[in-house]
Write a structure and sequence with these properties.
Layout lengths: L19 H12 L10 E5 L13 H13 L3 E6 L11 H10 L4 H4 L3 E3 L8 E5 L8 E5 H5 L2 E4 L4 E3 L3 E3 L1 H9 L2 H8 L5 E2 L9 H5 L5 E4 L2 E4 L9 H5 L5 E2 L3 H19 L3
Parallel strand pairs: 1-2, 1-6, 2-3
Antiparallel strand pairs: 4-5, 7-8, 9-12, 10-11
């Protein structure tokens, strides 16, 4: 495999010089976006709209800069993401869109449509074969992402309780999976509760979309039949009482994410 070419810029902007979005446009052009045939093609820009009220996402002006260039090259861009498994403001398409709008991602601000790729309830997906996959035979990918002719990831970087590091592979692999796909990627990672540390506060229950944590007599247990292994409760527990001893499942989660990312990007 050919080594990737990596281009950098900084945030320095002289008072009468280039703005950051202008520098970003120059960076994209230098990296060779003009070599892609966009003419009349649908272009999925996969990004993360952020949960309502948080700041851990790329600002909409970066998306607009990218969309502007794609339109200049004759493409038809749209911003997209898939629904989440965990509770929050992105669990269905209507809440997801409102969250995106609240965080500044509207057609007016980004210069292109905003589409939730796996539909209203996260069920609008397509099974994409993963030829030679060790963990995944068919990846369940949001249909709008696979309907696009060109796919571009616009990734931010974060720490993650199961992946360790979240960047482009997580943004593509986990982010493009429908709700069924996210379940498949997480399915082996069933956490356990250290009863000596648990204080029965219910933070885990409140963070779970599926009612897996059960608090009874001041202690929590997790119903494995309901648990999807998303790890949300691990991050929410104030006592660090919830953990995952099945470290191989973390390896499997990351391997599945990589194979899902491969399914999205292959031949495009």
């Amino acid at each position: 495999m050919e080594k990737s070419k990596v281009f950098f810029t900084d945030f320095r902007t002289p008072m009468y010089g280039e703005t950051i979005p202008q520098k970003f446009k120059r960076l994209i052009k230098t990296a060779g976006i003009g070599q892609i045939d966009f003419d009349g093609k649908f272009v999925a820009i996969k990004t993360h709209f952020g949960e309502l009220g948080n700041l851990s996402f790329l600002r909409p002006n970066y998306a607009k800069a990218l969309a502007d260039i794609i339109k200049e090259l004759g493409g038809k861009p749209f911003l997209t993401d898939c629904n989440t498994l965990y509770p929050g403001f992105r669990k269905n398409a209507l809440d997801h869109l409102e969250c995106a709008w609240e965080n500044g991602f509207t057609p007016m601000t980004v210069g292109c449509p905003v589409i939730i790729a796996d539909g209203l309830k996260g069920t609008d997906d397509i099974d994409v074969p993963v030829n030679g996959g060790e963990y995944i035979k068919y990846a369940h990918i949001g249909r709008a992402i696979m309907d696009a002719d060109v796919f571009i990831t616009l990734s931010h970087v974060k720490g993650h309780e199961n992946a360790g590091f979240g960047g482009a592979i997580k943004n593509i692999g986990m982010g493009c999976g429908s709700r069924a796909g996210k379940m498949e990627m997480h399915c082996d990672g069933k956490p356990e509760v250290d009863q000596d540390l648990c204080i029965g506060c219910g933070a885990c229950f409140n963070s779970c979309a599926h009612g897996a944590p059960i608090v009874k007599d001041g202690k929590c247990t997790i119903d494995e039949n309901k648990c999807l292994g998303c790890g949300r409760c691990i991050a929410k527990c104030p006592m660090d009482a919830i953990h995952n001893e099945k470290w191989t499942s973390c390896k499997a989660l990351n391997s599945r994410m990589a194979e899902y990312a491969y399914a999205v990007c292959k031949d495009r």
